[in-house]
Fold this sequence. Notes:
Layout: H1 2-19, E1 31-36, H2 38-53, E2 58-63, H3 69-76, E3 81-86, H4 87-97, E4 101-109, E5 113-116, E6 130-134, H5 137-149, E7 154-155, H6 161-166, E8 179-181, E9 187-191, H7 196-199, E10 205-208, H8 210-215, E11 224-225, H9 228-233, E12 236-241, H10 248-257, H11 260-270, E13 275-276
Parallel strand pairs: 1-2, 1-3, 6-9, 6-10
Antiparallel strand pairs: 3-12, 4-12, 4-13, 5-10, 5-11, 7-8
Helix pairs in contact: 2-10
Amino acid sequence: MKKFIAVVCAAALCAGLAACGGANKNLTDTYIKVGASPAPHADILRQAQPLLEEKGIKLEIQEFDDYVVPNTALENGDLGANYFQHEPYLKDFNAQNNTHLATAAYVHYEPLGVYPGKTSSIEALPDGAKIGIPNDNTNGGRALLLLADLGLITLKDGLDLDYFRNAEGALNFSEYDGIAENPKNIQFVALEAANLPPSLPDLDLAVINGNYALGAGIADQVLTTETPETAQVFANVLAVKEGNENSKAVQALIEVLNSETIKEYIQDTYKGTVVPVE
């Protein structure tokens, strides 16, 4: 009986450690597995690999094409960290999914951009035009902020940049409840962010996240972007399970990602489409 109780207690302890960001085979003192969007995140991590190896730490990169699985994988311990999202999205994801993920470091920001589809410019946008936006609360709301700044719509009072800057929980800022005035009768088509670039032929315009524009090879077609002030509120982060922020491999990776070497790579490679956090 004593042996049985000891086994049960040990199992409970292990479960508790996992829930609090404890033991994880994908995050040790000498190894970290990081989930990332293909561009620019995985490309940046590949530049970090040899620098991290000099510190005696192996970095493995797993690429994801969506904004959900890399967070569930991190929560479940299938990753040691991830690098693909901004903090407002992370907070909203935690609130919506009861996950326990935390920001370990801010790395870069990607100004959200407006891209042409059937309509070649913002000025030529017809009445009743279809504009694609991301279908998650934070990036969808962020897209509406940009369109409001362009004068295409007016948002309800209180739905502004501070709404995102100060939000601690779930955001409910969508095309369904955020718009006060829509003089052009724009039809908003909310799609998974990854599906916006291939949907451009069916849309007049689309508001697209920088990583997906880069991946689709259309970053140079952008018509306009967010201001730096807005974009920096949505700085992309290295995320970990709560409790792992100060682990040796995570801290070493943060040091590398915030190094001058990586900052210069980002500046030289992306030329303003991706901007390192200062």
